[in-house]
Recover the amino acids of this structure.
RNA sequence: GUCCCCGUAGCUCAGUUGGAUAGAGCGUCGGAUUCCUAAUCCGAAGGCCACAGGUUCGAAUCCUGUCGGGGACACCA
């Protein structure tokens, strides 16, 4: 099967991409003229909006980057480049500045054309095809199925979900996956805890929940369900008789809880993979066989732990070890326990191979407390995937801890006593949009504080409302205009002035912002961009306070009103598209 | 002891992957509302980008080291 042809009719070329192409063409012309040596690399040439808008509309570093290859100084080369660029009628000026920047100013019509492009593309404005044909598997949340979601899971859940949406918007084929750890010892503990609640539901006085079992009340409904389902058959039966059944029932019930919690945040996974099923399919054995064949797994003795407090019961045991030291880990890591069962790591490497079967790239979102295991899993996946053909790109995104505060005081959380803050509580208290946006207004690898009191009480100062308000303002203006028989029109766009152009320029950055964020896999950039766009909108709006002729709706001038409403509509569209990526509601009114 | 992340305004954080004079919000001070939503806007003050070297046309950004904060170092998950 051949490569699918691009359909150039439907492909949106954004303004930035178009001028990057023009810049490139100018450089190629210089190469043909012999100013630049044949085969010059343009890889580091960028075309971006300058930090300071007074410098112009676009800036390129081409002269500085290429001066060395051209064996000349940047400013001299810049002269040659500007001469080529100024031949383009849509470029009104090309000025050399500072060490050799070339600042371009565009004819307003170029920006107005972009405004029309926003209207024409609608919900697809900003969507890109850079990820076309790439299948990306994003695994996130993957909380143990032992209870409801708590706040510790929240950040990774939101970041993973927004990243998945962002990649989708960037043209990738995305699978959202959840790995259910239903094979470990903690599930036995869960089953025992469920059995206790089952006996309780049958009328037995179970007293205090013993140390080592899950004490939470959330297991009571499960106990009642099991009692009505199974009767008293297992009330005094031995553990071997009921453990498997109770495990399965409990995991199912816990996953229902978790899915319901995730739904509160608007999160839905495509695939739920079971660790137990992975074992049943013999995947870890396959992986082990291959690794042994290639001398990446051997039987060896584990070194004593190096932490501050060496465990008292530590003794040397021979275990199958993966050579992760070969990849920079400080110790080789066991893939099986001394009792012959698989370690988490042993199963996990097989699980990643399973994911790789249907993906071109893998991304895991993990909590920072798992940072120590990144090296071994990356090493194992690199070795295994290379052995089975192509090494698969595999990225682990670490999400740092969230410190929960209430009025500046740390919120105490203890699983033991069941006093942890649940995700459902938080969403119930502050709302989905606030939780999501707050989690996305800082980069995930930095620690963050989440102060309950602040987010709730000072909700007016919360950035999410600032952005939503901008959208609501636009929508309300359009409604009001419609009542007066006025609507958006692109017939008089040429009447728009400098302030409106500034707004358009900001909006026009959305596509490149999406591409950059998708490439860097950093959804938080979209949140900050939207804040800037909203800020620009609010600023323009307030011009109307001092100068009534700057308002959107001018009853005496239907032509200009139509153009401004067209602008407002487009800005609203961009905000909607951006909020859509973040999974935050674009409200009609506030 | 080893590994990972972070250190930018009083506080909370951005900083377009190496670009031009360092950016917001909160807080402080001073202003704007007979007006399409003031949940908004405008202005002022506030900086040794933790510190020291290095890389180059150019460093908050990359490299090395030091200091400080957080996390991880069991066959748990």
């Amino acid at each position: 099967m051949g490569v699918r042809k691009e359909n150039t009719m439907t492909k949106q070329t954004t303004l930035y991409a178009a001028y990057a192409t023009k810049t490139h063409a100018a450089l190629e012309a210089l190469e043909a003229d012999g100013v630049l040596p044949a085969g010059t690399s343009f890889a580091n040439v960028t075309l971006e909006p300058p930090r300071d808008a007074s410098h112009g509309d676009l800036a390129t570093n081409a002269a500085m980057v290429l001066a060395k290859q051209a064996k000349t100084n940047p400013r001299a080369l810049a002269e040659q480049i500007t001469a080529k660029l100024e031949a383009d009628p849509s470029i009104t000026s090309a000025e050399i500045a500072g060490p050799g920047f070339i600042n371009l100013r565009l004819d307003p019509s170029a920006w107005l054309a972009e405004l029309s492009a926003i209207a024409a593309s609608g919900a697809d404005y900003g969507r890109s095809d850079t990820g076309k044909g790439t299948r990306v598997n994003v695994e996130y949340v993957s909380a143990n199925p032992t209870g409801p979601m708590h706040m510790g899971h929240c950040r990774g859940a939101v970041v993973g979900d927004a990243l998945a949406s962002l990649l989708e918007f960037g043209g990738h084929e995305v699978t959202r996956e959840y790995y259910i750890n239903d094979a470990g010892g903690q599930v036995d503990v869960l089953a025992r805890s469920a059995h206790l609640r089952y006996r309780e539901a049958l009328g037995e006085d179970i007293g205090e929940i013993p140390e080592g079992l899950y004490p939470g009340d959330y297991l009571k409904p499960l106990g009642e369900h099991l009692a009505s389902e199974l009767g008293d058959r297992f009330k005094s039966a031995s553990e071997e008789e009921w453990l498997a059944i109770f495990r399965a029932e409990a995991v199912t019930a816990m996953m229902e809880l978790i899915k319901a919690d995730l739904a509160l945040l608007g999160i839905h996974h495509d695939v739920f993979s079971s660790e137990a099923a992975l074992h049943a399919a013999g995947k870890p054995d396959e992986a082990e066989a291959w690794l042994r064949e290639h001398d990446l797994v051997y039987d060896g003795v584990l070194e004593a732990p190096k932490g501050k407090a060496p465990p008292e019961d530590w003794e040397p045991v021979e275990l199958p070890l993966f050579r992760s030291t070969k990849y920079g880990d400080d110790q080789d890591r066991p893939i099986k326990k001394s009792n012959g069962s698989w370690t988490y790591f042993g199963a996990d490497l097989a699980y990643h191979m399973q994911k790789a079967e249907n993906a071109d790239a893998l991304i895991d979102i993990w909590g920072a407390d798992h940072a120590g295991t990144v090296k071994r899993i990356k090493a194992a996946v690199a070795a295994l995937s290379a052995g089975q053909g192509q090494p698969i790109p595999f990225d682990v995104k670490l999400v740092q801890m969230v410190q929960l505060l209430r009025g500046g005081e740390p919120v105490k959380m203890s699983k033991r006593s069941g006093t942890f803050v649940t995700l459902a509580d938080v969403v119930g208290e502050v709302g989905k949009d606030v939780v999501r946006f707050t989690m996305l207004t800082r980069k995930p690898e930095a620690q963050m504080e989440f102060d309950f009191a602040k987010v709730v009480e000072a909700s007016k100062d919360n950035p999410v409302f600032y952005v939503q308000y901008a959208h609501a303002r636009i929508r309300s203006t359009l409604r009001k205009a419609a009542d007066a028989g006025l609507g958006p029109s692109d017939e008089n766009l040429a009447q728009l002035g400098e302030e409106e152009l500034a707004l358009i320029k900001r909006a026009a950055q959305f596509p490149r912002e999406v591409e950059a964020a998708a490439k860097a896999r950093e959804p938080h950039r979209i949140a900050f961009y939207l804040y800037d766009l909203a800020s620009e909108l609010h600023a323009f709006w307030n011009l109307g306070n001092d100068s009534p002729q700057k308002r959107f709706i001018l009853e005496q001038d239907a032509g200009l009103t139509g153009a401004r409403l067209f602008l407002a509509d487009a800005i609203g569209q961009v905000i909607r598209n951006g909020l859509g990526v973040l999974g935050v509601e674009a409200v009609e009114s506030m």
Remarks:
- The first strand of chain A starts at residue 47 and ends at 48.
- Confidence is low (pLDDT under 50) at residues 1-11 of chain A.
